Each structure stands twice: as structure tokens, then as C-alpha cells.
Amino acid sequence: MNLREVSIHQESWPLRGVFRISRGAYTEIPLVMVEIREGMAVGRGECRPYPRYGESAQGVASGIKALVPALEAGMEREELNAMLAPGAVRNAIDCALWDLASKRSGLPAWQLAGLLPPQPLSTAYTLSVDTPANLAQAARIEASRPLLKLKLDGAGDLDRVAAVRANAPDARLIVDANEAWTSADYQSLAPELARIGVEMLEQPFPSDCDHWLAALDRPLPVCADESCHAAASLKGLAGLYDVVNIKLDKAGGLTEALRMKALAEGCGFKIMVGCMVATSLSMAPAFLLAQGAAYVDIDGPLLLQDDRQHGLSYAGSQVFPPSAELWG
Length: 328
Fold this sequence. Notes:
By secondary structure, this protein is an alpha/beta fold. The protein contains 11 helices and 14 strands.
């Protein structure tokens, strides 16, 4: 076996504007990238440390650093997934190991994973929390996109959705409350959202209030995001949610996410493949996962000022398979 070298990079990527969700507003995104070099082959993986899950860039970088001796000694995905919990640390390493295996073998990651050749996908485009007037303007600009995703935060949400619907009448529309609603919010808003053509509601309640859904009518499908991490979380979501949002940073990498997708489909859930705001290096493995998903939300690079070299190619909302130079 060739000796390995591991390098860790903490980065900050500016956004095109202010990105607001119910938990706060952001103008730049912290990312951590890991490179694993073995001979002439270099595998790369990226993660977005997420404070909602107790993560920070420094903490994630330290977590990766602690595994450098094992990685340099030859650790592979199976050992990694057996010893490390889901989360951003495992995601960055797992995806780097997939990329390294692809570079070593000369085979694309989709083939190593036993998947069909990936086809172009249509991604949602996200509009962050804003005033109805600003959202009306944004919706007019993005009205030609086939699927818009609108972030909500409680007060004024119906006016926000109505403004988007009125100015992008032909776009499909999904909404994401990021845990901001109460049960009363849901009971007043969900029927109205269904009436004006919203086709899916993502994570209305805090994750420890999932049980509220058991006693509520379901005027439109509901998707679990913050309540849905790795495969072990699926059992507790059955009968409460219709859709699960699989994100690599939550699942802890492509290895677990592929297993989770298969299990979720077997349990009757529809699949959404989402992302944290990040570069194309994060989107590339998610692109493989998103093949055949009911909802695809991998628009992260479209929200950044810049992207990585050899980034994914986007034509409007259509996104094309990654090049080998980027990942996999």
C-alpha cells in the first residue's frame, strides 16, 4: 500500500447576498475540506459544519485531525462508518475516500457504488426568508425555474408564499419552516398552503415535537429534515412524515446515505436529497444520491459568489454530472 498524506482545509465562502432562515442570517459559509493523497491519486471531500447540530469549523477540523493517523495507516469507508457517528466529520472523510477509490481504480464513483450512469437532474432553487415585496421581486426573476423552495419562519408566512405564487405562477413550490412553527401555525397555514398550490412542507416543528403530527390533519405532504439524520432515525418517522430529506452532512457521508435511501424507499417514504449551502464538491456525491429522488435540492453553488474549479455545470435549474476533475 502507498503511504497516504492527509491535509485539512478550513475555508470561508462568501454568499451572493444575505441568506436567511428561521435560525439566522448568513453572508458567508464556513466549510472544511479534506484531501487524502495516496501516490498520485488524491481524494477530496467537503462538509459544512452546522451549529444546529453542535458543529463548528474548528471542531470538525479537530475531529478530522484526530483520525489522520488511522487514515494514513489505510482506513477505508467500512471502518470509518463503524467507528464514527454520523455528521460533518464523517461526511468529509467518507466522500474523500470515495473519490480516492475512484482515482485509484480509474472507475467513476457511481460504478464503484453499483449505480446506473447518472443523468442530468433538475434542482430546486431556494428563496430565503424575506419580506413579501422582496420575495415578489425575487420570484419574478426566478419565475422560469421549474421548482422553487421558499424558506419560512412563522409570522407573515402566508403573505410570503402568496407573493411568490403570484409572481412565479408556473413554478412548482415547496416550503421549509426549519422548525419555526407551532401546532397552531400548522393548523392555520397548512390548509392555505395546499389551497394555493404548495406541494410539500418541510420540517414545520422542532425535531423533538414530531409527535404533534400524529394528531394533525395532512392537507399536504410533510418532509422530515432536522428530524432525519442517518438510517437509524427512519423508524421514529414512520407514520408521521411522508418524505425524508437525506443530506450527506447529516447522514455522515455517501456510504450511509445510499443505505439510508434504500431503507427509506422500502419503508414507503418519498425521497428528497438536499444540501447545506456549500460548493460543488459537496454537491457531487449528493448528485449520485439524488438520482431518482422525488425532490432534488442541490442548488448550494448557485447561492455562492464563486465555486470550486471544475464545479458542477448548471443550466438554469438543470445540473449535470460531475467531472472526474471535481470528484468521483
